[in-house]
Amino acid sequence: MIFPFRVLGVLCMVGSLLTHVAPCAAEEVESPPVCFQKVPVAMDSHAFSTHRSWQAEHGLPQNSVQAITQTRDGYLWLATFGGLARFDGVRFRTYNTGNTPNFTTNRLLTLFQDRAGRLWIGGEGGALMCLEADRVQPFGLAEGVPQSNIAAICETPDGTLWIGADDGLFRREGARFVRADSPATGANRVIALWPTPDGRIFFGRKEGVFVLHNGQTAALQLLPQAALTCLFRDRQNRFWIGSEWGVFVWQEGAPPRQFLKNDGLSHNLIHSVTQDPAGRIWIGTGLGVTVFENENLRPATELELANQEVQGLHLDGEGNLWAGTTTGGVHVFAPTRLAAISLPVRNDPSVTAILQDQSGTIWVSTSCSGLHRIRGNQLESLWIPCVWAMAEDRTGALWLGMYTGSLRRLAANRLTLYGNADGLPGSAVVSLLVAQDGHTLWIGTNVGLAQRTPDGRFHDLTRLPNAPQTWVRTLLEAPDGSLWIAADSGLFHFQNGQFSRFTTRDGLGNPFVRALHLDANHILWVGTYGGGLHRIDHGSCCRIRTADGLLDDVVSFIHEDSEGNFWLSGNRGLSRVARSELEDFCLGRRSRVDPLGYTKADGMPDSETNGGFQPAACRLRDGTVLFPTIKGVARLAFDRTNRQSPPLLIESVAVNGVAQPVHPQSVFAPGVRRMEITYTGLSFSVPEKVRFRYRLEGTESDWIDAGSRRTAFYTNLAPGTYRFIVTACNNEGLWNEAGTTLTFTIQPFFYQTRWFQALWLLIVIGTGWGLYELRVRHLLARAFHLEMLVRERTENLRREKEKTEAANQSQTRLLSLIAHDLKNPLFAIAGWVKLARENLKNRRSSEVCDEPLHSINNEVQDMIGFITTLLDSAALEAGRLRLSRHRLDLAELVKTVAARQPVSVPGRRRSR
To answer: What is the DSSP letter of 890?
Structure first.
């Protein structure tokens, strides 16, 4: 069978190559019928998209995971042969005999949470423990627990706890466990338990299935020649009975159906069974997982566990499938909204264009690995390399744009070629668009734009004024019939036979335009290669970049979903941002946008998407959108949104580096210099994309965006009562608005207490009052002193004034005397001078002149003496003259005075 298939493939390849190299002529060249090679492809919209695993090197206690359960608070618990692990998606916490008091064994077999929220743990050697409020309570022989392996635990509707052990079935009565089943011949080992709402308990022993009802045990003959390993009842009330020889499906009132490896099981040894929300049954076997859907079994090869022995399976609250293995740790498969469609190509899996035709067939082209079509879950390949553009006209014909310069039309399974000889410009076709009339074909080439009219003729538009003469990447027809053109040299608009151009001068961040989208309000959105996203409204351009919150400045495709979100593809994956956010940013109502990013971790085959050709993505009829990546197709399903917001928990509090118990109302000692609050959000779909924000009421009014950080730090908190609030969102941006809180009180030092502060306040007030009183008294005394000083100074001033007035009066009198004393000598001098002149005029002898001159001299001496006396008197008053005493000859004084007596001047009478 292999040889004919290979021959057929070679013949198809040769025929396609001959078609590919056929010369282009003015006439249409039709090829022989094309043939496709068929291979299966996974197109299940319910398939799990992502796979992660953890082993001991990542924090798992031990790589043999025997049981998995999720408690109602959201934590995932793993029973291993190295202890119990609690997992929040990021961090493991281990409970074992070395770090947990009362932990009796590390080799654990089963887990169960009762209605009170307590976690029951069963292990080897009769180990039964109950974990509640982070404390372990052991149960042993004193409580009636058999000293043999505890393999199963359950709870009946009346609240009774049951355990299955190697020694039989036991139920809890009060504080003890008592035997509930009748001892059987041979082995009594109870391997599995399953209670039903009517009060019955189905349990499995190695030799078969038994039912306990009203104290009576009955055997059900369901497992011929097979040893039972597990029990599971699905939502259709069918029992799935795992054994060492396949799985049995039994519904009461009907015979069981046995499925073996020949029926589709990956292995006959069955360890665990579970059911997902879609109704599929997942079976953990000795080699991988088998899935039962549509009444058929098939190995779940997409789970990548073909070489692992799967011990336990569990579906968590978000629909993620967990698988515990014997030696490979724990694995999780998440049904995220993004899934990868891998193409079975050996060379380049880089996808270029994607299209869904009128019949529902999906066409996928690759850069160098041929053309593929998908019908249902069947993929068919045709060797036509370098298809970079596709379009379907109204007749159902498929048009293929080739990077090698030709245009092909595929209709009725035949290819027709067109090239330069037909009027097609350029050497590459990278974009195609069928006009609204259904027949006109717009063609984007490496040298500009061309058109094929319904009459079959090609028109070269590259020579029109302002026409794009460069790579034309994307074409968009507006409702008015005009054409928007994304090119390497800018954005062009073709209307009424005229081109207009928008470049960086008009606000474009980069002239390399890749993506176009026209929204319901006829606003044009433009994606560029490196320049970000643009909003163009009546010539006004708004640019949104990574600096404004965008995740990538490369925008290769823009898709708007029914909820008003934009999906942008680029080199860093897909991003989702609400159109309202973009509008608010461009209108100045917000400073940034806040998109969500999707990468390979979310299920894409690769984070880098492709673009620069048309169509760069495709919306299918069921609402799914397919995006091209460099390693296959990314399938975006809008019905796969994670609608569960993360449960939030405060895990620990450390004060000054010392761990403290966490209580709803915690009280901490004085002196909190450093506080660390550790919290977690329990979302397992994409746990690394859980985002947190928190605030501490009493110190912070705004939320602190912590990103993925799970610890809050505070320093030097003052005494008082605080309320810490933390919220989180899942990988889809759904926030747990209620969040969780921690209220705590920091006690004060004695000097920070109210009574001490009140006492200190009284002391301060008393001291202040005393100081005030002292100050007032000091001020009053000073005021009195100043008053006395003022009075004294006033009295002195009065006295000085009186002295001054008296001195002024004396000075007045003195001036009057001076005036008279100076006036008389002057008159005498004047007279004597006149007499001397007359004598000289009459030429009298000198004796006649001697007397007047002698008299003049005497008068002058008298005046000099008088003036000297006045100066001495002034100096004496100013303190510059000191008096000295010496003897006075009175007789000589009289003679001197007599000698200076004035004499009469002839012709003038002297007066006094």
So the answer is: H
Contacts of 373 (CB under 8 A, 6+ apart): 36, 361, 362, 363, 364, 379, 380, 382
Compute φ and ψ for 662, nearest 5 degrees. -100, 115
Which helix (H) or strand (E) is 163 found in, with range?
A: strand 161-165
Q: Up-side HSE of residue 230: CA atoms within 13 Å toward CB?
A: 23
- At which residue do the structure tokens 């912590």 appear? 706
Q: Report the alpha-carbon distance of residue 299 to residue 296 in Å, rounded.
A: 10
Pairing of strands 720-729, 246-250: unpaired
The pLDDT of residue 272 is above 70: yes
pLDDT one-digit tens code per residue, 205-234: 887 899 998 888 888 877 766 789 999 999
Max CA pair span of the chain = 192
- Residue listed under structure tokens 């004047």: 830
Measured CA to CA in angstroms, residue 804 lies from 158, 161, 791 at distances of: 123, 122, 19
Spatial distance between the Cα atoms of 676 and 710, rounded to a whole number of angstroms: 10
Q: How confident is the model at residue 508 (pLDDT cuts 50, 70, 90)?
A: very high
Are the beta carbons of 535 and 544 closer than 8 angstroms?
yes
Chain-centroid distance, C-alpha 672? 29
Residue 819: the pLDDT is: 60
Q: CA 152 to CA 230: how far, in whole Å?
A: 10
Query: Which residue in this structure is represented by tokens 């009946």?
Result: 156
Q: Are the C-beta atoms of residues 708 and 714 closer than 8 Å to each other?
A: no
Kindly report which listed range (341-345, 463-467, 828-832, 903-907) carries the lowest average pLDDT score: 903-907
Query: Which residues fall within 8 angstroms of residue 783, CB to CB, at 6 or more apart?
Result: none
Q: Is the pLDDT of residue 26 over 90?
A: no
Q: What share of the chain is helix, strand, coil (3-state, %, to 5)?
A: 20, 40, 40
Tokens of 778: 């000091």
Give the integer Cα–Cα distance in Å for 510 and 433.
24
Tens digits of per-residue pLDDT, 182-198? 766 456 789 999 999 99
Q: In the Cβ-directed half-sphere of 359, how many Cα atoms lie within 13 Å?
A: 11
**Angle at which helices 754-841 and 846-878 cross, to 10°:** 170
* One-letter amino acid of 850: D
d(C-alpha 201, C-alpha 209), whole Å: 10
Residue 530 neighbours by CB distance under 10 Å: 16
- In sequence order, the β-bridge partners of residue 391 are 399
Task: Flag whether pLDDT at 871 surpasses 70.
Answer: no
Report the C-alpha gap between 326 and 311 in whole angstroms.
6
Coil, helix or strand at residue 344: coil
Q: Which of 868, 867, 869, 873 is nearest to 822 (CA)?
A: 867
Instruction: Pick the closest to residue 515 from 631, 627, 603, 409 (CA basis).
Output: 627
Name the nearest CA neighbour of 143 among 104, 176, 98. Answer: 176
In tens, the pLDDT along 804-843 reads: 777 777 766 666 666 666 666 666 777 767 777 677 666 5
Residue 60 burial by CB count (10 A; 0-12/13-18/19+): exposed, middle or buried? buried
Which parts of 686-731 are beta strand (E)?
A: 691-697, 704-707, 711-715, 720-729
Closest among 576, 502, 568, 596 to 541, alpha carbons compared: 502
Average pLDDT, the chain: 86
Task: Determine the distance from the C-alpha atom of residue 694 to the mean position of all C-alpha atoms in its chain, rounded to a whole number.
Answer: 12
Phi, psi of 203, rounded to the nearest 5 degrees: -140, 150
Q: How far is CA 639 from the centre of its chain?
A: 25
Instruction: Give the angle 151-156-162 at the CA atoms, nearest 5°.
Output: 30
Both structure tokens of 677: 């609050």
353 with 628: CB under 8 angstroms? yes
Question: Can you tell me the distance from the alpha carbon of 261 to that of 180, in angstroms, rounded to the nearest whole number?
Answer: 36
Instruction: List the end-to-end C-alpha distance of the chain, in Å, as a whole number.
Output: 173
Nearest to 615, CA basis, from 633, 597, 589, 638 = 633
Does residue 911 register a pLDDT over 60?
no
